User: Which sequence fits this backbone?
């Protein structure tokens, strides 16, 4: 039998999840932002289906609670972008619904300029362009 580091990562992640992540909601609200994307990637690669569902449930609730006005916040759009890229089949339709609910004024308040970086509108446009290349997301 050949053991790869990825196999060890699966077992280690499962043990860590059982021991330290008793309440995913509490854990996810406390995780530092700079570790969130790495954690989500590890969940996607190493988490059992039950774990992926429980973690995903937290973010589905979060996105369902968003209003169109939140699309003007860089931090919110950054997290949306990470979630949509990790599971476009689940999260892209949810974001589309938020955009479709927005008034013209709400859409215009979402600018393409941010403090020293591209703003939330530009991030959403680029995310849409990347996903439009796939027939299932066009």
Assistant:
């Amino acid at each position: 039998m050949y053991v790869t580091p990825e196999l060890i990562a699966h077992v280690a992640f499962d043990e860590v999840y059982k021991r330290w992540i008793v309440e995913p909601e509490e854990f996810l609200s406390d995780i530092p932002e700079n570790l969130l994307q790495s954690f989500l990637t590890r969940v996607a690669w190493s988490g059992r289906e039950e774990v992926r569902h429980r973690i995903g449930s937290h973010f589905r609730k979060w996105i369902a609670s968003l209003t169109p006005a939140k699309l003007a916040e860089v931090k919110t759009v950054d997290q949306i972008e990470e979630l949509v890229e990790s599971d476009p089949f689940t999260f892209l339709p949810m974001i589309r619904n938020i955009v479709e609910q927005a008034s013209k004024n709400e859409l215009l308040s979402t600018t393409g300029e941010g403090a020293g970086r591209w703003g939330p509108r530009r991030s959403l446009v680029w995310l849409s362009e990347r996903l439009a290349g796939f027939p299932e997301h066009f």
